[in-house]
Design a protein that fits this description.
21% strand; four-stranded parallel beta sheet; alpha/beta
């Protein structure tokens, strides 16, 4: 089994049917991983991804967090987090109503 070398997009979303058409095909530019709870996203960012030596390019919060939860997540990111220390663009957005923030590292 070969290891997937594509960069990862983590998408935290509400459980249920897909409402957006994400390109999750094997030949897509990025590997998309869906997380159905904000707590799972926190775990992944706190160390689960780093322990597995994976490269996270983007984090998308899709209607599964309140504005306060979103800001708490941003404030809790460690300085060495893949979302904050990557040399390429890292985007964190909340699509619950409108984009709350987008950051380019």
């Amino acid at each position: 089994m070969t290891r997937d070398q594509r960069r990862i997009t983590l998408i935290a979303r509400r459980p249920g049917p897909f409402e957006r058409s994400w390109d999750a095909a094997r030949d897509a530019a990025n590997r998309i991983i869906f997380l159905e709870a904000l707590t799972v996203l926190r775990y992944a960012l706190d160390g689960g991804v780093a322990e597995m030596q994976q490269d996270v390019e983007r984090v998308v919060i899709d209607r599964c967090a309140t504005p306060v939860q979103y800001l708490e997540l941003l404030a809790a990111l460690p300085v060495s987090s893949p979302a904050t220390s990557s040399t390429s663009a890292a985007t964190i957005a909340d699509s619950s109503a409108r984009p709350v923030a987008a950051a380019t590292a």
